[in-house]
């Protein structure tokens, strides 16, 4: 029983890593909290839903499409709007992304309506039995896709010039500017990359969870918790935080009842902020 | 500042305001009365948020948490048999204690971390209210006893109640603005390390501002609960109760006494416009307003009006 | 000479780095002591620990005979320790006058802002900022902001003042003016710990010098003999041979 919960937690954790990845990237590099993040995930999920409904494309194949669709608008949004307030205090940047989120979420509500939709996989992928543990194949596939996504972004930041530029700007923006890195472009690329990752994560999630604009606040909340849990701005931190939350929530649901799984996350967040504001594994200060 | 003593000025402001409200109560129709009631509710929230968010510069998103706490505390106290007036005062006390405790816990955080912590408090409270069904009715909501007046009288009674709260918030803000506490909060906003190094008890100042803000938010929630006489968790813990006061303060000019009041008036006007013309998309239009405000008018209308007097200030800030 | 400040075996670690490693020293009343050492030696950490910005990892701080380590920085400030920051810390949107008034108000030497403003005039005159009193702090020149930093600290009426690189970035004429100012502060009976990189300033202002190196006291004594000490010279030259990355980690 406990082993089964652990497996559930791992599968959930992989998805959580992907949910938080883009959020952490934006927070770490641009030093803003992107309230839009949850809605971008939901938008990716809707793209996958309609690709599935209209063309029969699997949500897993839709993930790269969703990523590409979100990339360009996000790039322009950062460059044209968000970039103008980056130097402003937290209150201003937070209020701006909140306003943008109101617009996007309201647009989605108007177009898609609030009722939940579900991608029906045809044929259903079934459940694997591994050493007595039930592993739903759709969750396994989505989890694997999420891990691939995280690994891809990690490779990108490690090996490509753009990735190195993003890391450089994160570590010391002024020094990076002096080295000739176009900081504004790097910010826009980071934001676009984060939106693309959010879109892809949303597509993967659509294979498992029902889709609705009202779900966006929940994804945003998870991303917060994972970032604080894993420490801000590093990809290994996101993975640790994602799996950590997945496992904690699975056990929390067992002991307190599934309806309290969400509360566990929020109470955990509050406790972490009180006692370990740099994350359980965090080392970088935030002041 | 004019040479007249502050007390005389305060009395004059109070007198003019009371007269205007009395006129609305007698002459206004129900629509006008409802509008005025909402205005005073908004002004109370914006004035209270401004103490911690504007003066001290701590981006608090805890207004909804305390608004909801106040609403439910009022409901629970009245369900236990207390008359509404006693319940409201009790709520103010509860909000003060909770605010002081929470402030002690989260005011050492800065920037994004403080913002998130204050935001999460509302979510945690909503979950607690949702699951504590025996006390709060859970997701089914909670009914509050009606106050035994005619409908017209009730509307005017609650307008008066919110007016009293807004006036109190205004006078408290004005008092703080002129006392060393207000100066200390401004210094904290600009450089809290420097303030502490000069000997300012920054923890006390921040806690005081936060606690006072929580008292007003809680009292506003309590009066609101009695006004609508039915509350549910998604309504009173709505994150918009945290965000709207910020928008109002930004509109009117943060860190000033009159800014939040001006902001509340402007915001209410815009909101009425949106509600009428964009029934389905009014939240999106609100979002657009926020974006435009932040991009083009971050110092608020207030600053626009006084731009000449503050040129050096602006030059310094840019 | 009775010590006004005593550090006993004071340590502070950051992760695995010992920024301060068992520092024991004392400063006598009315002394002007130089505190020098290569970058990353722990000078600023020492000031931060004494003024309560960081809690010490071990050891004790005594000020005027009372133990003050672990107290909050505002309490320490009100007991009479002031400091200037290496990177100046004004209240950028307040006037110069109100910046200084803040020092008076926060150290509880006045109960109202208007009274604090009255008292501030003296410190503005003392630091030569009187002309600029209605200027917004952010508009001052660097030399002006350094003076303001000093005026704010003096306004708290300290017994002990840490001056953290007040001369960095100033030209020769400005340094001469700053030295003259330090002399006048000392003449008011304020004990001064001067953190400096410019040896010319140390030689002229301090009779005694303490050298920190890798978080430890390397030398402590009369300025002339300490600066001639072979180990001190090696510490400075040696620090230049350390790769920059390592120096950064220690700082």
Largest sheet of chain C: 6 strands, mixed
Which whole number gives the mean pLDDT of chain B? 87
Structural class of chain C: alpha/beta
Task: Work out the radius of gyration of chain B.
Answer: 19 Å
Shape of chain B: globular
N→C terminal distance of chain B: 26 Å
Helix content of chain B: over 70%
What is the CATH class of the domain at 1-78 and 200-251 in chain C? Alpha Beta
The total count of helices of chain C amounts to: 10
Strand order of the largest sheet of chain C: 6-7-8-3-9-10
Secondary-structure element order of chain B, N to C: HHHHHHEHHHEHHHHHH
Strand numbers in spatial order across the main sheet of chain B? 1-2
- The low-pLDDT segments of chain C are 240-251
CATH architecture of the domain at 1-78 and 200-251 in chain C: 3-Layer(aba) Sandwich
Number of strands of chain C: 10
Radius of gyration of chain C: 18 Å
Largest sheet of chain B, in brief, is: 2 strands, antiparallel
Can you give me a brief rundown of this structure?
The complex is a heterotrimer of chains A (287), B (318) and C (251). Helices cover 73% and strands 3% of the residues of chain A.
Give a verbal description of the structure.
- The complex is a heterotrimer of chains A (287), B (318) and C (251).
- Chain A is built from eleven helices and two strands; from the N terminus they run ααααββααααααα.
- Chain A has helices spanning 2-30, 37-55, 59-80, 90-112, 137-159, 161-171, 173-178, 183-206, 216-230, 235-256, 261-275; strands at 127-130, 133-136.
- In chain A, a hairpin with a 2-residue loop joins strand 1 and strand 2 (133-136).
- Chain A is globular, with a radius of gyration of 18 Å.
- In chain B, strands 1-2 form a two-stranded antiparallel sheet.
- In chain B, helix 1 (6-27) packs antiparallel against helix 7 and helix 7 (151-178) packs across helix 8.
- Residues 307-318 of chain B have low confidence and may be disordered.
- Chain C is an alpha/beta fold and 251 residues long.
- Chain C has a domain at 1-78 and 200-251: 3-Layer(aba) Sandwich (Rossmann fold), CATH 3.40.50.
- Chain C has ten helices and ten strands.
- Chain C has helices at residues 43-50, 73-79, 96-106, 113-126, 142-154, 172-187, 199-205, 223-228, 230-241, 244-250, and strands spanning 3-14, 17-28, 32-36, 58-63, 66-67, 81-84, 160-164, 191-195, 208-213, 216-222.
- In chain C, the strands form two sheets. Chain C has a six-stranded mixed beta sheet, sandwiched between helices. In chain C, strands 2-1-4-5 form a four-stranded antiparallel beta sheet, with helices on one face.
- The radius of gyration of chain C is 18 Å and the shape is globular.
- Classes of the chains: A mainly alpha (287), B mainly alpha (318), C alpha/beta (251).
- The interface between A and B is large, with 42 and 40 residues.
